[in-house]
Target: Aminotransferase class I/II-fold pyridoxal phosphate-dependent enzyme
Amino acid sequence: MDTSIIDKLKEIVDTNLISFHMPGHKLGKVYDKLGYSDILKNIYKMDTTEIDGTDNLHSPDGIIKKSQERASKVFKSKHTYYLVNGSTCGIQGAIMASCLPKDKIIVNRDCHQSVINSCILGDIEPVYIRPKINIQTNIIEGIERQDVIDTIDNNLDAKAILVTYPTYYGKTYDLKKICDYAHEKNMVVIVDEAHGSHLGLSDKLPKTALEQGADIVIQSTHKTLPSFTQSSMIHIQGNRVDIDKIGQILRIIESSSPSYVLMSSLDLAVDIYESKGELLMNELLLNIDIFTNDMKDNEFIDVFNEDDKTKIFISTKKMGITGYELEKILRQKYNVQVELANYYGVLLICTIGNEIEDFNIIKKALNDISKNFHSEKTIETIQYPMSIPLKVLSPREAFYKPKKRVKIYESIGKICGEYVIPYPPGISLLSPGEIITKEIIDYILLCNEKGMNVSGIKDSSLQFIEIVVD
Model:
């Protein structure tokens, strides 16, 4: 039997990989722990379609409607939709329901690529807010409230504002004051809370976007709660949003054959969240506290986990190795997989699916690595590009313009015809319609040489890039 995908996935399961990456169920460990194994062992038999009794996601009046209403109650929204095309379709639905073609939307520059894609689909004009970057770690730390206020004041004709909260790395900011100010200017507030579906489980975590006044919140339930990859939710509250219009757009952009396996996993995640979530989160936060306190004894490792404490960034600078090197060592020698690596360290995503043994294993691994792989070499400083490129065409205009491929350094000063996206986390450094700068080209080539992956660009070797033919 030639089943290369299945064979590799089975190998990962059989090796009992230690997961500090998404999805949040951590290779199903949380289901085993809570006694859901008997239900899930027959999950393949639940793969069905719209037949008598199964309801219809796009016009629910039965079991799906009941489950969504429970989710709405649990997450404290006015209305909740289940999503089977990931948070991407939720972001698309939120933006296109809030803005008409040619409208403006204010977004944080470090938004997910799906935001720019939504602007292409809806013919909407993005206006960017500059993000904060930690120059010691290259961690994106969110946005400054005053930068948001200034951007709103300079674009009072914008119909909506979309911000990412928390960031991929767990950083937060004063979202409530941003929501209040945007509402004063009659703007809808959309929050990409893809990495924050768990925040409501403890008052030791930052407040949720809904609690702080957001009108539309999109959550990747699969990232930090125990549902299957690609299953997400969109929550709506207040009277600024046309709920029916969001539903209409979701019917256009989402699969007409929604997966009942994915919807079942959302149903299960809601049940776990409501019945056992707080207890499991308290256990997780205790385990994280023990881990971070113990790591203070290691002089070669710095641990960052401010704000959302379930996101832990391990800095490798004092060890004299890059984050890319640490990621490889952890996987190959200790069977531990992190969420991502950058030049300065690695990110751990911890969820209620993680157990104390996971932390014991990675703690031992990090202590061993700091002794056996410690180097005297200095990790050079790589400056993250701080300037937002000049936008001369809207994303939609650039998308449909003719393009040609040129050598990458010959593209400087030209209009970019494709995305340049370090991945993960999927944040665009260059988007279609923006002027290509030497700063960005130098950065991606250097980081790619050190181990960073770059997506969006067709030539994965980074020798060529597409530019708009003017």
Remarks:
- The chain has three domains: 4-23+276-372, 35-273, 395-468.
- Residues 83 and 311 are 24 Å apart (CA to CA).
- DSSP finds 15 helices and 19 strands in the chain.
